[in-house]
Write a structure and sequence with these properties.
The chain is mostly helical and 182 residues long. It is built from eight helices and no strands.
Length: 182
Amino acid sequence: MAQQNASVGRDGGKCMSDSWVEKRAVAALGSEEERTQIQRHGHRGIITMDQESKMETVTTFRAAFPPPKSSGVRTQGTRSELLEKRVTQMISEKIHSERKQPTPSTDFCSTTQRDFCVKGFVSSAPETTPVHDYKTDQAITFWSEKYQQIQGVTGVRTLKAPFRKSATFSTPIREQLDEISI
């Protein structure tokens, strides 16, 4: 019964069950022409009636828990205070000197100038070797030089061509023995 009486003054909008009082308070401010002004400037006079009042500068937390006040009595001796200041100054100077190292002089020299244009270098053409036919000669590569160390390579019959096709694994033993004896 009490629930029905509370819902009598409510609007059919999507407000929370207990916020119909606030909705009724701002209903007069919600006309369509004022809606853009309200969105820009907000509702005036809802939180406070005094428009010229200023916000408090102290929060409730700071008001409840103020910082501790010193008793006015010295808690550290003069010498230890001066010593502490001197040590912190020395450490800060050391850190600043480590961080602010002088910038190294910039060497505006390209890789070509540095590595290939060395003073005193005289270029010479390499000595000629016997004529090679690139169509028939076996190419010299890393693997052609290391063919003895490669696992899974069939037996090499000619040293000039270690990677050519070999059918020794499928040739009958009699035929292999016949070829060896010849």
